[in-house]
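Lecture notes, part 5. Sequence design as translation. It can be helpful to think of inverse folding as translation between two languages: the language of shapes and the language of residues. The source text, in structure tokens, appears below.
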């Protein structure tokens, strides 16, 4: 029996785009010893001076990633599939809107719903996911989240959504895993009443 799922929330970086961030290198440059901490959550705990230094490093890496962004294999097909099947979907990202809009143009994708960190909270907080669900008009319990990151899975779980980890060798807790984005339409066919 199909689960009563109706909507899809997608991560952006490393999900619709090819992975372009070297998070360990960036955290190293920031002098962040705890590799597990979210940079965005760490920032407000620091002095204004140190926070500025870290923001500048983050901005530099995000700009670099935006400049060389490439569509992930299967990204265009997945978006076409969602549109053809009239499945409500949106993008929920911890990136800033200004970077995402630049990449959207560069990799030639489009979507109507985009939730970024500019709303003032970010994954692993469930609120961006809940905002995404509301924006696509689907109750959280009927949403599927596809993302390549640990925070995607944590936020999805906290929001009561089905989590699908995009990874060739997933070691992160999630409900399901997807080895490549190319396999996403077949998986969604099983999960949603399309
Ligand atoms: Mg990602």
């Amino acid at each position: 029996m199909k689960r009563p799922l109706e909507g899809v929330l997608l991560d952006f970086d490393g999900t619709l785009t090819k992975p372009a961030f070297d998070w360990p290198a960036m955290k190293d440059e920031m002098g962040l010893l705890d590799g597990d901490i979210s940079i965005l959550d760490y920032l407000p705990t620091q002095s204004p001076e140190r926070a500025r230094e870290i923001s500048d490093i983050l901005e530099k890496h995000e700009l670099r990633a935006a400049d060389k962004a490439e569509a992930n294999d299967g990204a265009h097909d997945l978006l076409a599939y969602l549109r053809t099947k009239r499945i409500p979907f949106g993008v929920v990202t911890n990136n800033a809107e200004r970077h995402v809009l630049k990449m959207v143009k560069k990799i030639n994708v489009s979507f109507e719903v985009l939730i970024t960190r500019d709303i003032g909270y970010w994954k692993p907080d469930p609120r961006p996911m809940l905002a995404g669900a509301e924006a696509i008009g689907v109750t959280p319990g009927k949403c599927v989240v596809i993302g390549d990151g640990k925070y995607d899975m944590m936020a999805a779980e906290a929001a009561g959504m089905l989590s699908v980890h995009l990874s060739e060798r997933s070691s992160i807790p999630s409900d399901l895993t997807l080895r490549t984005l190319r396999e996403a339409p077949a998986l969604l066919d099983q999960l949603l009443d399309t």
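The translated text above is only one of many valid answers, since several sequences can fold into similar shapes. Residues 23-67 form one domain.
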